[in-house]
């Protein structure tokens, strides 16, 4: 029987996809290993125990990690700074750059278009980052007509939906295969450990995990220097 004064486990929200593959080894090094069902694609579980009794994990879409943490449904999470810039939740504290999921957020367009965006007054852009995109172009004095898409971004210029896109770029291979080129880098992207600010102030377990991952990444940086 659980003790009456025992705290419920804290929840760590992890993103699906490539960031997850890089995040799991880091978590294992600080003693957080999800139960085997976490890696079972046929599992119908929604929450997963870990090797620590006081930590459970959930796996959600990368854009949803920030929402779960901001509203306190998860006390900790891992999210790219692209997501943090898009939503700009005041309830989120991002204390540790984990140095994983590195890529860049860029403006891309068909190779035949003029790459000098300063000559324009209006652009139509397809992206899954509407708020971030509007802010970026407004800062440059350009009015952006933003079309929200959730995927297949490179298709938008090919079918005339938009002349330009704002999307994550890693190698640039997909852009090149579709006749697109990068014309501007908006931000360098990496994944951060994020925390709900209220949980950070009130739950020592949150602080302990933050410090463990901060020490791990700082030691890795020092070894690489």
Describe the structure.
The chain contains eight helices and eleven strands. The protein has helices spanning 18-29, 62-70, 81-87, 130-139, 155-158, 173-177, 197-202, 204-224, and strands at residues 10-15, 47-49, 55-60, 76-80, 92-97, 103-110, 122-127, 143-148, 164-169, 180-189, 191-196. Helix 3 (81-87) packs across helix 4 (130-139). The mean pLDDT is 93.
Write out key terms for the chains shown.
225 residues, alpha/beta, D-Maltodextrin-Binding Protein, domain 2, 6-stranded mixed beta sheet, 5-stranded mixed beta sheet, 8 helices, 11 strands, 33% helix
- Main beta sheet, described? 6 strands, mixed
The arrangement of helices and strands along the chain is: EHEEHEHEEEHEHEHEEHH
Over all CA atoms, what is the radius of gyration? 20 Å
How many domains, in number, for the residues?
2
Q: Could you give the topology of this structure?
A:
Elements: E1 10-15, H1 18-29, E2 47-49, E3 55-60, H2 62-70, E4 76-80, H3 81-87, E5 92-97, E6 103-110, E7 122-127, H4 130-139, E8 143-148, H5 155-158, E9 164-169, H6 173-177, E10 180-189, E11 191-196, H7 197-202, H8 204-224
Q: How would you sum up this structure in a few lines?
A:
With 225 residues, this protein is an alpha/beta fold.
